[in-house]
Design brief:
With 195 residues, the chain is α+β, with helices and mostly antiparallel strands. Helix content is 27%, strand content 30%. The chain contains five helices and nine strands.
Length: 195
C-alpha cells in the first residue's frame, strides 16, 4: 500500500443538484446518450438531506458518469454556486484509496465523510472553496458488474471510520470482506456521518 506517492486517479463522474429531474434526464439522454441506471427516492434513509431523489446515468461501461440530486421545496432554488453537488475521482483499488487516505491524513487533510455506497467505497473531502470532492474505489472487479449492481440494488449508504477500515485492511482483510463488514456496520463511526 503506497502512502508516500501521489496516485493519479481518473475523473469518474460529477454530481449536479437540480429541481428538474425529469427534464435533466431527458436532456442528458438526448444530448449525450445517457442511460438511466438507477433512480431512487429520498437519499440517506433516516438522515435529513435536502434531496428528495437521486438518479445515476452513464453513456459508457462505467456505472454512472453523472449523479443527479433532486431538490424540492425551499431547497429547490439553490444558488448557482451550489448546483455542482460533487466531483468524483476513481482509484483502481481499495489499497490505492486507503493509501491516499493515510497520505492525506499525514498532511492534515481529513475526509468529512466516509461510506460504503454499495457500488463504491467513498471518501468525501472539501476543497478550500468547500466543493465536495469524492475519492472512490469500486467494490467490483469490472465496470459491467458495478453497473449491474447499481441497476438492480437498493441505495446503500453505510458510514465507516476510515482508520478502522485501514487497520482491518492492514491486518489482512480482503477488499470484499471489508465491503461486507462495512455494510454490516462493523466499522461504523463514533459520530453520525454528515449528509
Amino acid at each position: 500500500m503506497n502512502t508516500e506517492t501521489i496516485i493519479h486517479p481518473k475523473l469518474q463522474h460529477f454530481g449536479l443538484n437540480t429541481s428538474n429531474m425529469d427534464a435533466m434526464l431527458d436532456w442528458y439522454r438526448k444530448v449525450l446518450g445517457m442511460t438511466l441506471n438507477h433512480r431512487t427516492p429520498w437519499l440517506g434513509g433516516a438522515q435529513r438531506t435536502p434531496w428528495s431523489s437521486a438518479a445515476f446515468v452513464s453513456n459508457d461501461e462505467v456505472n454512472h458518469r453523472i449523479a443527479l440530486f433532486e431538490r424540492s421545496g425551499p431547497a429547490a432554488e439553490a444558488p448557482r454556486e451550489e448546483r455542482v453537488q460533487h466531483i468524483a475521482f476513481a482509484y483502481q483499488s481499495l489499497d490505492d484509496l486507503l493509501g491516499t487516505y493515510a497520505r492525506l491524513k499525514e498532511l492534515g487533510i481529513k475526509p468529512v465523510m466516509a461510506a460504503d455506497q454499495g457500488v463504491h467505497i467513498v471518501l468525501y473531502y472539501l476543497d478550500p472553496d468547500q466543493n465536495r470532492i469524492e475519492l472512490n474505489a469500486s467494490n467490483y472487479a469490472d465496470e459491467w458488474t458495478a453497473t449491474e449492481h447499481i441497476k438492480s440494488s437498493e441505495s446503500t449508504f453505510a458510514p465507516f471510520d476510515p482508520d478502522r477500515l485501514l487497520a482491518a485492511r492492514t491486518a489482512g482483510a480482503s477488499a470484499w470482506d471489508l465491503h461486507k463488514r462495512t455494510l454490516a456496520g462493523e466499522f461504523a463511526p463514533g459520530r453520525p456521518a454528515r449528509a
